[in-house]
Each structure stands twice: as C-alpha cells, then as structure tokens.
Amino acid sequence: MTPPEEEEEAGPPSKTQRKRAMEELQALGEELVELAPDRLKKIDLPEDLRTAVRAAQRMTRHDEARRRQLQYIGRVMRDIDDPEPIRHSLAALRGDSAEETGRLHRIERLRTALLADESVLYGIAEDFPAVDLQHLRSLRRAALNEQEQGKPPRNYRAIFQFLKELEGGGNTALRGE
C-alpha cells in the first residue's frame, strides 16, 4: 500500500492542489511587495516580476487595483520555473534559515570576544585584510564607554552591523571562537 502523499503525486495535480499552489505563490508575491526597496534589490528576480512588484509598492491604498496587481504578481510567479531560490532569499532576509541564524550567532560571539579582548582585532585582520581596523577599534572603545556609563548600546549595535557587512562581502571565513 502506498502512503497518501505518493498517491497524490502519481497523477496530475487536482484542482485544489493547483489552487493551493497558486495562492502560495501569490502570498510569496505579497511578501515581496512588503519588502523595503533596498532589501528587494538583494533578491534575484526576473525583470518582469521586479517591475510588477515595484508597481504594487507604489500603490499606497489597499484597494481593488492593488488586489488585481497582487493577483498579476501571482500569475507572473507561476511562470517562474523554480520559485525556491526566491523563497530561500526571503527566508534568509527574515532570518528563518538555519544558516542565517548560525551566521548571526557567530557574529554575536565575535562581537563579545572583541569587546572582551582587543587582540581579537588581529584575528579579524587576518580573515579580512581589507578591514578598517581603526574604525573597528574606535567602535570598540565607544561601545565599552557606553557600557561603563550605562548609555544605550548604539556603538555595540554598530559593531554588529560592521561585522555583518564584513562577512556579507562574500568571505565566509569569519570564526567567532
């Protein structure tokens, strides 16, 4: 006897399955519309889909025209061979993927180690020769001063963003040990 999942895949998809898949693609399109323009640029999209998403983003009122535009985006998404890379990119932007979560934890550990010991700067310089050590050192000093004085952690966060951008430059040699 075959499990029910295999029986469904044996024949062509039912009308319900097709409708569910279309609604899922439209929801994915809606998620693209809700992204900030700078985040949307980071996702590799076909040009016609990118144009449709930008048009929907310019629609400020949530009216019938916007609903039709979202349906159109869903239709364009159905023409895409494999929407999985788009799903993966959105998951990474949301921080849902295990890889992204691990990367953020690695950066947090590195930041903690950097604040505890200035010699960690030299390890960062070895992994990333183009790093601006002077800027990172000044951020570290300012973050330590903020902690001592009980101020909001502005520079503490800036160190995290600096390290995140540094790792995002294509080099995955960052180690937070």
From TrEMBL:
Keyword terms, alphabetized: Cytoplasm, Ribosome biogenesis, RNA-binding, rRNA-binding
Phylogenetic placement of the source organism: Bacteria, Pseudomonadati, Pseudomonadota, Betaproteobacteria, Candidatus Accumulibacter
Role of this protein: Member of a network of 50S ribosomal subunit biogenesis factors which assembles along the 30S-50S interface, preventing incorrect 23S rRNA structures from forming. Promotes peptidyl transferase center (PTC) maturation.
The keyword Cytoplasm is assigned to this record: yes
Name of protein: Dual-action ribosomal maturation protein DarP
Name of the coding gene: yjgA
Compartmental location: Cytoplasm
Molecular function terms from GO: ribosome binding; rRNA binding
GO biological process: assembly of large subunit precursor of preribosome
Region (Disordered): 1-20
Highest taxon, organism lineage: Bacteria
Comp. bias regions, Acidic residues: 1-10
Pfam family, one: DarP
